[in-house]
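Worked Example 4.2. Consider the chain below.
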Amino acid sequence: MTPHRWLISTLALGLLVALPAAVAQQRGKIPLVGWLRPGYPPDPSHPSDASALYLNAFRQGLRDLGYVEGQNIRLEYRYAAYQWDRLPALAAELVQLKPEVLVTTTEQAVLAAKQATTTIPIAVAVAGDLVELGIVASLARPGGNVTGQILRDHELAGKRLELLKEAAPTITQVAILTDPTGPGSAHVPSAFEKEARALGVRLQRVDAGTPEAISDALATIVQSEANALMIQDSAMFNAHRQHILDVARTHRLPTVCGVRVYAEAGCLIAYAPNILEMFRRAAVFVDKILKGTKPADIPMELPSKLELVLNLKTAESLGISFPQRLLVLADEVMK
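Applying the procedure from the previous section yields the following structure tokens:
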């Protein structure tokens, strides 16, 4: 080979090697993931901020699979600040950007995303029973453009009530702080009336559908005959959990909640799936979709593990001693 031809061949080979890297750096060639959440943007100044915790868990899941934001994957964020009527417009904004995947949570946001697109895959980090709501056909074969992870939270409410009664046997009336905007609220309290009767407990539903309504709902509960509080799992209540639990503690109401972050904020008992793990797991669904699997062919998942967290400090402030059985069953006892 002549020196001239050798130089041309070397340059051509170099271009072929460099081409994928150059293409990968082009903005339009890096996969775009839309992130649609009903709540507030993350607050970096508060390490326990739920929005930040969940986003960081999802990012960690992506890193575990080899994705680095800004290098080989991009994320575009939209937050509705619990203004539920904003979700359709925010979903439409993300769809206009033509992402490869939309990641979302809650039934309301899933519905908004599904109304905005029937073709872009939607990966659900966590939401209520989408099968029961008719959003997906089945767990094994969801069909359409939606897959991901769901909770059947109303099925856990009876067990939470049992745990609360075991920790505080004298309770007779439990107020249930309920978000009526969530489709799952239709099961409150009918889904666990049977358990309540067996425990000798009356249930009192109190609705709060906006952040502004929470204080009024808590005032109603405090003025009622309720001597304990159950907090329905809700993205909105999660964001305002510290205020809710501070009021409950001030008025000496034993509390039972869902996810672990409530216990960290002072809830007496938390019993639910590990939501942070579900957000990490959402990255697996994104990875499968980016590698070409259709969401219709990706089975939906239920949480594989439930965790019981007890707050010993809250118990002591209420004069409650956890039975030994609960202490043994607990995944964690916070001191």
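Confidence is low (pLDDT under 50) at residues 1-27. Residues 3-25 form the longest helix (23 residues). Compare this with Example 4.1 before moving on.
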